[in-house]
Amino acid sequence: MDTLIIRLEGGDRAELADLADASGRAPEDLARDAVLRYLRDERARVAGEAARLAQRHDALLKRLGQ
User: Fold this and answer.
1) Is the Cβ–Cβ distance between 16 and 30 less than 8 Å?
2) Separation of alpha carbons 36 and 34, rounded Å
């Protein structure tokens, strides 16, 4: 597993530590889950947008031979 350093302001770091403590998890695990959730959501959003654009421009794409 690769390492990624994320810099947080003091208040954000404290909030992450508090949430981790309350949930019995490590702050790193919460941050990793948040990044993975973001990637999943963005992947779905971009795929949806690509499908919408492909549908909108279907005729043009067919003329261009895709």
Assistant:
1) yes
2) 6
DSSP annotation string for 21-33: HHHTS-HHHHHHH
**The predicted structure's pLDDT at residue 66:** 59
CB proximity list for 13: less than 8 A, separation 6 or greater: 27
Nearest to 19 by CA among 4, 39, 33: 33
C-alpha to C-alpha distance for 31 and 11, rounded to whole angstroms: 15
pLDDT at 60: 87
Would you say residue 11 has pLDDT above 70? yes
**12-50: pLDDT as tens digits:** 999 999 999 999 999 999 999 999 999 999 999 999 999
- The single-letter code of the amino acid at 27 is P
d(CA 58, CA 64): 10
